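USER:
Working in pairs, take the chain set out below, taking as long as you need, and write a paragraph about the fold.
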Amino acid sequence: MVPKPISDAATTRGHDAPAAAPLGLHEEVLLLAVRDAEGTVDPRAVHWAEALAAATLAELVLLGHLALDATRGGLLTAAPGDAPDDPVLAGVLGRVRRFGKTATLAYWTDRLCRETKWRIATAEGLVRRRILAVRRHGAIPFFSTKSLPARDIGPETALRAELKKAPLRPAPSPRNSARLALVVVGDLLANVYPSAPDQEAARRVRRAIRAHPIGRAIVDAVDAVHEARLASKNARYRAITATRHWALWTGVLGQRAQDWARRAEGMTSRDPR
């Protein structure tokens, strides 16, 4: 589901940005992940949150607010200058600058993915731009939910058409390389290509992603996030298993010690005659 606390006032709060203005990568990921009619996230887009976090950082890189060093594991460095007008991009850039240390794209992807406020702010921006609408479900406010059906399908339709043509070009742009990488890591291929792409199409997509450092960095960063989470999960499982085994054997040995003590007490209390 799309994060619940989307404000109904998002359609009127502040000034409405024109729908024809270019979308950011983070907004494009959210449009592809949310189903037009239902207004909820497609269940096939399992890793859309990781893709949206990486898309926010990639947009800052493409706009020149962050410098990406692909030779050093995707190291990100905040560049001086004014913050972007987009509140999501400005907030993430301020977060990176306040951190005070350089970190990798994988590190920030993991951190931003754990914070739902960036996804909520991205959805509210699309509502203000009148691309998505807010639909409330349920009469009781505390127990009600909200969905985000499409209001204007023009931007998403144009995006899908561009994503289908991008792998066919001999020299894809850095933005298209990042777009295709985000579609792959966010499990959004089925939302772009109705039928599974053949081997030749898949090869062209991989080639377009590898054409620019930003595309390769996005794939490497999200893969690193998944590997780190899997390793952490395995470590927790091993720790829990070891603790349970220790408790089990401690309980067994403790019970046996009590049995031995009772037997010894019974033997010493017998009459020697």
The two ends are 81 Å apart (CA to CA). Confidence is low (pLDDT under 50) at residues 1-19. DSSP finds ten helices and five strands in the chain. The first helix runs from residue 25 to 33.
